[in-house]
Amino acid sequence: MSISSINYSSSVLGSQIRNINQQLTDLSTQLSTGKLSQNYSGMGTNEGFAIAGRSHISNIAAYTDTMTNVNVNINLANTALQSLTTIRNTTQTGSASTAQDLNVNGQTVAQNTAAAQFGSMVGVLNTQSGNRYLFSGTAFNTQPVANAGDIINGTTTQAGFKTVMAERQAADLGANGMGRLVQTQPTPSSVKVSEDVAGSPFGLKIAAVSSTLTGATVTGPSGSPVSFSVDLNGVNPNNGDKLSVQFTLPDGSTEQIDLTASTAKPTPLGSFAIDASTPVNPTNTATNLNTALNTAITKLANTSLVAASAITAGNNFFNTTSSAIGTPVNNQAATPAPITGATALSGASPSDSISPGFVAGDSITVNGTTLTFVSSGATGNQLNVGDSIQTLMSKIDAITGTSKPSTVHGGSITINTDDAASLNVTSSNTGAMSSLGFSSTPVTATQPPLRVGSSPASSATTLVNGSANTVKWYTGNDGPGSPRSTAVARVDDSVTVQYGAQANEDAIRQQLQAIAVFGTFSTSPTSQYAGGQVAALSLRTTQALTKQPGQQRIEDIQTDLAMAQNTMKDAGTRQTQAKAQLQSIIDQAESASPDQVASEILSLQNALQASYQVTSNLSQLSLVKFL
């Protein structure tokens, strides 16, 4: 019988020792690395949670990077906006100053400062963050605002704002310097003042006339073009009697001329002399009234009108606001008169209504929204056939959202819109639309920038689209939608922030426009009207830079951006907490406890020592000892 030798490598004991050695090696690795294993297979059943947690942490890291970049852009934009606020305050303080001393260029110190501030503002609006322009909206690769010099002075092929303003001033003043008004004396005892052309957007518009002149007859304002007349009827007014005429200026402001009959010598400013000859000659009084009225209108035209014209030129050049102007039309009264806001949209002849008028079932569609005519009881987007033109215009304005209400003057309807590109008005009753002064449909607005329509400007009667030959000051994104939505970033799984901005936003554009007008306008230092022009312009500039309730302010944009930052801050706080929790899950799944590992190593070392002892004893076993 043969006895096999003990084969250590194939024995159970040897296998056990090798297993213990492997465990000791693994535990030593765990002790040195702090990890349960160097590969996923050794991590255990909880490794799935760790993998998911690591994925979430990676997402959080990406969100953190996004928020860091967005915060950089917002901080730069906010710095730029704060600079705009400083520029606004500086210009406003200067325009409100009473100092009106003119230099050789016909400007005040405050105007020179404003011209420099305009260049600074343009530079601020062209701020970049990396290769991104902050105030271009979605067109972030495009410089949003043209160079300041080009905007004001133009280029070799395109007119700048200075040219547009000069054209507008000539058109508003007219050839006779009286604001496009024509003054005559039809009879020796009367005076008549008329607008030169019905429906013209230029010059002074006669709004109202009132009189306490004893024995006088006042007619108007009425007719097309609008006019008024005063006939003394051969009777001298009493001392202190007054004639008041109110005018609407191109910028929408109103001014009033008050002329008082006076026996004082010399005749006080703002008065006209009552004839004191013997016998009394009222014709001389009418002549004095005519002269005083001419002087007052000329002064108004060359002071407040010039300033209002500059403001309006700024709006024509910088603003997207425009209008559709209908031709002057009359109502069907017994004595036909120009339509007004009170004129009914339908009615029997004779009455203050249009003909042909609208009937039940007719419709007017404004920018895709339909207004329907009903016999009575109109609600929502309905109109009664007997409603007034003013009611219709209010409905149209509500749909377009215009910031400047539509008007009726001299029988001509003007539909205003803040977005000329979108205005589109049609009707199922084209005859009634013609009665409103719109003989062709769709009714659309002239695209800005607006320029005086013909030469010489002093006799022009229309504004036309000047985009082909005029500098475009804003070249960024100008599509529909909120400027804030032009830049969107996801900062959490279900959270996005909007942080876009555009240089043509109302608050920014209106400030740029006001400063451009104030800094560009100049007058003749020797003109008798220079002081009045600058004073009127300064007042309007101060008002333009003082925001009214409901108007967007620079601070409103800053508030929007601050809200985006607060949203990111809250998201970051949540993500920090989530990251800590996820890391804890990963650590629990993958980390090895040093104390537990050390304990296990000690236990294995003891087992290994015992195994080695058994092996040693077995190695000493012989046949003799066995027997």
TrEMBL record:
- InterPro entries, alphabetized: Flagellin
Look up keyword Ligase and say if it applies: no
Keywords noted in UniProt:
Cell projection, Cilium, Flagellum
Give a yes or no for keyword Ribosomal protein in this entry: no
Which cellular component terms (GO) are annotated to the entry?
A: bacterial-type flagellum
Q: Name one GO molecular function term.
A: structural molecule activity
Membrane-crossing residues? none
Q: Return the PANTHER family for the record.
A: FLAGELLAR HOOK-ASSOCIATED PROTEIN 3, FLAGELLIN
Q: What is this protein's record name?
A: Flagellar protein
Q: Which organism is it from?
A: Bradyrhizobium betae
